Amino acid sequence: MQPESLMMTYGYNPHWSEGAIKCPIFQTSTFVFKTAEEGKAFFELAYGKRYAKPGEIPGLIYSRLNNPNMQILEERLCLWDEAEEAAAFESGMSAIATTLLSYLKPGDALIYGNPVYGGTHHFINHYLVSIGVEVLPIHPKQSLREITSAIEASKLANKVKMIYIETPANPTNDLFDIELVSQLANFLMNFTQSRPKIAVDNTYLGPVFQQPLKHGADLVLYSATKYLGGHSDLIAGVVLGKKTDLEQIKHLRTFLGNMISPNTAWLLMRSIETLKIRMEKQQENAQKVVQWLLNHSKIKRVYYPGIKSQGTEQIEIFKKQCLGPGAMISFDIEGGEKEAFTFLNRLKLIHLAVSLGSNESLAQHPYSMTHSDVPEDDKKLHNITPSMIRLSIGIEHVDDILADLHQALNF
Ligand SMILES: *Cc1c(COP(=O)(O)O)cnc(C)c1O
To answer: Where does the record locate the signal sequence feature (predicted)?
Structure first.
């Protein structure tokens, strides 16, 4: 069965909870053992003291280690990306930081794709660097040859443990070729004993429109605050991949204690029941908005996956690895910051707020808001100008979205 058919029932039996059709919130810190022998057995498995016997399932002990809401949520999330294992966190940043920390030790090197989410960029360039991790940025417009020669020049090749990218990139919708990154990992095997792990932040397209594990990624990460949550009412994060690759991430999560709470997991379970229908509607609306913007005299350029102005190489990557263009649009308005702000201040239906992926449409100004911390040179390199607006398109009636854009541009 398809994931959207299983989202309402998978991993939960109503007869466990008085016949309740929906999985209740297990708002409990600890779980009662039937016998002391059972408690001993649960701990043996939880602490990896022995392997499970055939048919033996790890029991519930304490909600920092596991909780039915976290477990059922993780099982359901696996279905979308066809992953073996998932780990859910109380924020996207905690999923990202825990993943990086569990694979990188002082003296190791990380290759990361620029631009990445501001919080990720800060964590890499401030925290990881401060504990002695060496970092090397690459960007989507570089060829494999340019990247490999930069790595050779840096003398870091034998230390690389992870390659971390985000695609599409925020806010320009530039796509990183995941297959190229996979070739890069193969190249690095000439220098290291083990293949560096490839981690992809897939927040922008979600599992509905891009499945990085199928294109060579080892780990896929989400800020579940965005499309997975989809209602602007929770903060959460997820990492998915092979069981063996998730083991050390889950181990570190147990000790950092940044697992998702039962309440947030329950909200997220509610949300992913409608993930596909929401994302498809948002994309359908966004495609109409893109066509409208392309024909508007006050719009200089539109940034959206798969359209002509992104360039032919980008279109090839789009065809290879994306199942759809999603619902994030950026555009340059005629003029500069003044005109951009006038437009933003005139919006009525579309809210002026950062974040993305929710069922209501949002607009913001990357240059002075989400990307204000990005150095001026990098802003230039990535076309983040004072005239750029970023839209996250929601599920409203598209005519109302277009009418709002029309009246806000009419100054
Ligand atoms: C929002 C976001 C994050 C951070 O997630 P939080 O849930 O806010 O911690 C990471 N990556 C991307 C692409 C994001 O948009």
So the answer is: none
Q: Is the pTM of this model over 0.90?
A: yes
Nearest CA to ligand 1 atom 12: 117
Which CATH architecture is the domain 275-409 placed in?
Answer: Alpha-Beta Complex (3.90)
Give Cα separations from 270 to 8, 13, 26, 95, 409 (angstroms): 8, 16, 15, 20, 37
Ligand 1 atom closest to 119 (CA): 4
Q: Which tokens in the block code for residue 396?
A: 């409203």
Give me the torsion for CA of 61, 82, 99, 71, rounded to 10°: -20
Q: Is the shortest distance between the CB of 210 and ligand 1 below 6 Å?
A: no
- Is 170's C-beta closer than 6 angstroms to any atom of ligand 1? yes
Q: Which residue owns the Cα nearest ligand 1 atom 8?
A: 92
Measured between alpha carbons, how far apart are the two ends of the chain, in Å? 51
Q: What is the pLDDT of residues 135-184, one digit of tens each?
A: 999 998 899 999 999 999 999 999 999 999 999 998 999 999 999 999 99
Cα 411 to ligand 1 centre (Å): 34
Fold match between domain 3-272 and domain 275-409? no
Assess whether the C-beta atom of 102 lies below 6 angstroms from ligand 1.
no
- Which atom from ligand 1 is nearest to the alpha carbon of 203? 13
- Residue to mutate, 114, 223, 268, ligand 1, most ligand atoms under 8 Å from C-beta: 223
Q: Angle CA(197)–CA(203)–CA(204) in degrees, nearest 5?
A: 120
Distance CA 217, CA 197 (A): 8
Query: What value does the CA radius of gyration of the chain take, rounded to a whole number of Å?
Result: 22
Which structure tokens are listed for 194? 């083990």
CATH class of 3-272: alpha beta
